[in-house]
């Protein structure tokens, strides 16, 4: 229960969950918001905010197996979804401005909100919608609890999970402190079958056009360290709140790949064996995310004024080495050895100020206006060095590693577009009117967002190295909630939203062979995409807390950013071109979302809870080859499950099942079709008194697999004529994960 309800949770209530967790029915604002408290997720012990989001409507992922990083709300690419922490944006590493939700440990979460439409109160970067993660604060908890446990993976690796949270009165206010250590591990196996050229019948690939097979092990191992805190003073007319969180990730990604010239054989190097190449790729990643913001609110004769000041920063240091030995050489030649060192440094910081004032307009309405300022700085450095050579040696891929041959690298040099700085200043103003007429809550407002961008690329000539752009957008919005009865209501909204260009598209550098054999030239003058959209839904309350709802959404997207041909010849000569992104496309997105959260008290089973959601997702875009969906939008996603509680025994168990549909992506020179296996999770819980709970959880019990089909072409002409350069089938699997978790309140 949140602080708006005027009550504070006891630590024992969080450790020992009594009954069934439900999706909350939000009444405070007219916006279409779905809210899920931590009791809705906790029994399945999600590790991250991304894991928790797998159980809410319309969220899909294109992540690797058993990972949930960049959420795709309504199936759209991650950059179309606005991610907020405590209502504020946070920077991340991705060029498309998305934020990886596996950066936030689930233990920090108080609730998750899906904001289906936009409001003038918030920034408009939310074409697909907004995901807001509310972290625990001092008015959410009284007392403390600790968590200790471990996770066992299918390669017998055991990782720790430790944490504590405490909240209570300190001085004139309330303080909350929390800390977590989470071991992360993901051992995967991949297999790729590749075929060359293009026979008349695709079915003939397996027999006529086989090129090579790649076997890969991919292990991701690391530790996450996180801390969060809040301090709040509520002095009646004046309220002050300070929030902060810090997350540090140390991670190693270790890949080993073998390419063979036979679909099944694993003998040694060619020409006497089948091994064409041996590759070792190791990436060491150090990431830090921190955010701090303070909010001061004061009620006085002229209304209610609030001032919020925040600072957020993300840094990533990534060192990656790749060594490969090639044995598929001309007869008599020695094997070829090649090494690459890549150093990536990203620093992204945001300073923001928001001022808002509310003025009552009688007893049923209020007028709200304010402004928003943000200063964003992003510095990216990507540097590479090479190492090449040949040599004569015997090789056993089972006892040796290409890293054994590592030597000195050449001097690091920035890749094209790999040394840049982007400064982005935003100045927004907004105003809205809210009304509450008993059965009808409504809001109507407008927001104006002005953005000025300054781009410096240190890898291009001085005459184009410094460029700037500015744009402004007017974003109207309106929402309502109409109560038909005490149990039934209609929720509707209409809003204009936008999506700012991704960072790598606005750099003035030319990236050779980035589009198949063709080149990509960035465009610093790109404007944001924009969309008009509406949501209309119906909710029905079931029993004391159960809810069933259905929602239809539609988005009309303008100024889509698509790659266009400049007509200039590419670096690879005749038949290749230079492409650049432009605001030239339109698209539409639509779908239906259904969700259910209830117990079965209406049939005499109050301790049995059911939950589930189904989303049917569709879209339409016209690109260089005709009509398609938005890239990587799954056709559907659903999950459902149950929880059975046994109050007299202090025990519970439950299961959840999830499946998302096929996703398709088409860009110049490459087409990818991705399918996913189903996911099954099961938990068993035993409670001991009012202070102690232990849970056993099994996840990925169906050995979920991700399968991808790649159609690859040298250029657009070959793609239109279906003249393949390569056809690839790739599969990725990971085994089940088991965890034991104990919690004790104090």
Low-confidence stretches: 1-5
From the alpha-carbon coordinates, what is the Rg to the nearest angstrom? 27 Å
What is the third-level CATH name, the topology?
Maltoporin, Chain A
Q: Which sheet architecture does the biggest sheet show?
A: 22 strands, antiparallel, barrel
End-to-end C-alpha gap: 20 Å
What structural class do helix, strand and pairing data support? mainly beta
Shape: globular
What is the CATH class? Answer: Mainly Beta
Mean pLDDT: 93
CATH architecture: Beta Barrel
- Please estimate the helix content: under 10%
The structural domain count equals 1
Strand content: over 45%
Within CATH, the superfamily carries the name: TonB-dependent receptor, beta-barrel domain
Number of helices: 6
Can you count the beta strands?
38
């Amino acid at each position: 229960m949140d602080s708006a309800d005027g009550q504070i949770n006891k630590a024992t209530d969080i450790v020992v969950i009594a009954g069934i967790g439900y999706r909350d029915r939000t009444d405070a604002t007219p916006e279409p918001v779905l809210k899920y408290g931590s009791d809705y997720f906790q029994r399945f012990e999600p590790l991250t905010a991304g894991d928790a989001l797998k159980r809410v409507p319309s969220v899909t992922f294109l992540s690797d197996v058993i990972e949930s990083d960049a959420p795709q709300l309504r199936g759209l690419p991650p950059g179309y979804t606005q991610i907020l922490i405590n209502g504020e944006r946070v920077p991340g590493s991705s060029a498309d401005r998305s934020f990886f939700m596996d950066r936030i440990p689930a233990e920090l979460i108080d609730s998750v909100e899906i904001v289906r439409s936009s409001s003038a109160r918030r920034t408009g970067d939310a074409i697909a919608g907004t995901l807001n993660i509310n972290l625990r604060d001092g008015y959410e908890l009284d007392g403390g609890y600790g968590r200790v446990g471990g996770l066992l993976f299918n390669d017998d690796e055991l990782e720790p999970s430790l944490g504590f949270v405490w909240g209570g009165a300190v001085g004139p206010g309330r303080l909350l402190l929390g800390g977590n250590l989470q071991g992360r591990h993901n051992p995967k196996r991949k297999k790729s079958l590749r075929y060359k050229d293009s026979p008349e019948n695709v079915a003939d690939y397996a027999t006529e056009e086989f090129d090579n097979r790649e076997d890969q092990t991919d292990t991701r191992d690391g530790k996450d360290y996180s801390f969060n805190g809040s301090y709040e003073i509520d002095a009646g007319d004046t309220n002050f709140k300070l929030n902060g969180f810090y997350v540090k990730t140390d991670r190693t990604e270790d890949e080993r790949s073998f390419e063979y010239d036979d679909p099944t054989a694993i003998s040694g190097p060619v020409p006497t064996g089948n091994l064409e190449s041996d590759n070792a790729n190791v990436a060491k990643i150090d990431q830090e995310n921190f955010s701090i913001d303070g909010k001061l609110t004061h009620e006085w004769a002229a209304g209610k004024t609030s001032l919020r000041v925040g600072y957020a920063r993300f840094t990533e240091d990534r060192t990656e080495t790749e060594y490969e030995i090639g044995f598929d050489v001309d007869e008599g030649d020695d094997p070829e050895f090649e090494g690459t060192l890549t150093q990536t440094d990203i620093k992204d910081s945001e300073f923001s100020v928001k001022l808002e004032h509310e003025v009552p307009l009688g007893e049923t309405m209020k007028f709200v206006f304010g402004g928003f300022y943000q200063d964003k700085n992003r510095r990216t450095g990507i540097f590479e060095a090479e190492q090449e050579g040949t040599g004569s040696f015997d090789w056993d891929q089972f006892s040796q590693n290409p890293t054994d041959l590592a030597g000195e690298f050449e001097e690091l040099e920035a890749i094209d577009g790999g040394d840049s700085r982007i400064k982005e200043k935003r100045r927004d103003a907004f105003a809205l009117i809210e009304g509450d007429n008993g059965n009808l809550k409504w809001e109507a407002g407008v927001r104006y967002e002005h953005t000025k961008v300054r781009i410096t690329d240190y890898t291009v000539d001085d005459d184009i190295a410094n460029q700037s752009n500015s744009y402004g957008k007017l974003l109207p919005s309106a929402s309502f909630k109409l109560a038909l009865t005490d149990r039934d209501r209609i929720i509707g909204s209409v809003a204009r939203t936008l999506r700012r260009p991704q960072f790598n598209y606005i750099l003035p550098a030319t990236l050779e062979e980035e589009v198949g054999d063709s080149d990509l030239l960035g465009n610093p003058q790109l404007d944001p995409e924009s969309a008009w959209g509406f949501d209309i839904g119906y909710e029905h309350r079931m029993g004391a807390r159960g809810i069933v709802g259905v929602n239809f959404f539609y988005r009309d997207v303008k100024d889509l950013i698509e790659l266009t041909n400049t007509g200039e010849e590419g670096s690879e000569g005749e038949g290749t071109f230079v492409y650049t992104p432009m605001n030239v496309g339109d698209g539409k997105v639509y779908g239906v979302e259904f969700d259910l959260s209830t117990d079965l008290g209406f049939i005499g089973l109050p301790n049995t809870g059911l939950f589930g959601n189904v989303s049917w997702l569709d879209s339409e875009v016209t690109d260089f080859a005709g009509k398609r969906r938005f890239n990587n939008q799954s056709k559907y996603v659903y999950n459902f499950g149950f929880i059975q509680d046994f109050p007299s025994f202090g025990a519970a168990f439950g299961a959840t099942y999830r499946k998302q549909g096929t996703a398709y992506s088409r860009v110049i020179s490459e087409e990818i079709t991705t399918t996913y296996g189903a996911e099954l999770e099961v938990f068993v819980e035993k409670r001991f008194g009012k202070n102690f709970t232990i849970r056993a959880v099994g996840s990925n019990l169906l050995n979920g697999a991700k399968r991808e089909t790649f159609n690859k072409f040298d250029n657009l002409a070959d793609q239109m004529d279906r003249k393949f350069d390569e056809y690839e089938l790739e599969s990725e699997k990971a085994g089940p994960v088991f965890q034991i978790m104990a919690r004790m309140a104090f």
